């Protein structure tokens, strides 16, 4: 088992550097940004009052626990540190289990004296080490920035515990689903739903009289994010919710060992869908083949878009009511939304997240092209009259359809949210269409850039594509908090996309986004004409 553990640690060295190092840097950077942007207690008190009165902010931040520098920092960044730990862990768990089974490596290892159990145990220990290291570095980052030691330790342990919980989710997904792609999708959606459940639980919670602290609603306790947020680092420093998260994570890991003992190698607990005896008309073309391979993923992202759009407009009445009760909140939120109404601000916030979902959908589909190439399945396709350029163009076209379906789902959701109101303001639907269209263009940038990387550096396609989405999300959403220059913030396509402000539509970086799509798309297709296939070696 020691040899297998060393192999996993060596294989994931750069994963550790990027994910764990990036999480620690984000923690330290946030403390510096809070000192710069909210250096006085009055600034922090005002923002916490805004958050306590605004469910939209509560959906995407942590749990307010006071205006002290440490507690305020935890409110702003703790859920995002935990989310980075969760995604790292879930992907890593699937990589060393179901993905290795897909590639045939697990069968080779099982034929040695290691058997079937030792590799899985080594994988579990590997996840423990990764998240223990992440917890330690996050705690050290906060300590180095001058925050109290106990709160720093609780924040680090909370991030690591949630990461190990997600690791357990990934291990369960690897047992249940028949492919690494399905197992990864399962892990991502479980953690996104858990994040939303915690956010809703916090939004429905009870604020204190001074609006500086919120008591979570019971719903938050159904989510691991809710557990670590209720640890309240730098305020209450409760370790028992962190221990609860770690205990459940250990249970998931143990369950994965038990599940592996009842299934055959290469099989899954959830059987694959039966194939048709004869191919449909759609499979007569390579484009139809790509669609058949990717439509379940597109459907999943479109459902996520629909839910986001539904929340964007259905919460508008709640926001208006909060502003009526607290005029100071209305002034603060008007500033946050660039002079627009609270309802328009909700649409901008939610549809920016829709843009992230659309970009993820597109990158996943173009990344599927790289996976097919690495597995060698594309060689048989290219032996037919289908050429390399047509092959890549099919994936780019279906990725574009996927991004459009995600944004379209959000727009339909926005209409449904308005239709459910007694006195809907249908002008908000027009705002949703404008912001959604802008985010669709932003998603296209990620699609063509990933396609360009596929042609130039094929083995780096997945790493670069997902890294760019992550960087753009952090810069686009957190850039103003970190007081980054506008030109840096607008390098993130989701921040440069056309939006709606108090003075009307702002096209912002529309033209450079369109130019990037046209140039990147043409360059990727032109370069693909001369590129040789690159296997997984």
Structure characterization notes:
- With 537 residues, the protein is an all-alpha fold.
- 73% of the residues lie in helices and 2% in strands.
- The chain has 23 helices and 4 strands.
- The strands form 2 sheets. Strands 1-2 form a two-stranded antiparallel sheet. A two-stranded antiparallel sheet has the order 3-4.
- The mean pLDDT is 84.
The helix/strand class is mainly alpha
Largest sheet: 2 strands, antiparallel
Instruction: Going across the biggest sheet, name each strand in turn.
Output: 1-2
Radius of gyration: 23 Å
Helix percentage: over 70%
**Coarse shape:** globular
Counted by DSSP, the helix tally is 23
Number of strands: 4
Poorly predicted runs are none
Q: Kindly state the mean pLDDT as a whole number?
A: 84
Strand content: under 5%
Spatial gap, N to C terminus: 25 Å
In N-to-C order, the SSE pattern is HHHHHHHHHHEEHHHHHHHHHHHHEEH
In terms of topology, how is this protein built?
Layout: H1 2-11, H2 13-37, H3 41-53, H4 55-59, H5 69-95, H6 98-103, H7 105-110, H8 117-144, H9 149-176, H10 180-203, E1 206-207, E2 214-215, H11 224-229, H12 240-260, H13 286-314, H14 316-325, H15 327-336, H16 342-375, H17 378-382, H18 388-419, H19 427-456, H20 461-478, H21 486-489, H22 493-496, E3 499-501, E4 504-506, H23 510-528
Antiparallel strand pairs: 1-2, 3-4
Helix pairs in contact: 1-8, 2-5, 2-8, 3-15, 5-8, 5-9, 5-10, 8-9, 9-10, 9-12, 13-16, 13-18, 14-15, 14-16, 16-18, 16-19, 16-20, 18-19, 19-20, 19-23
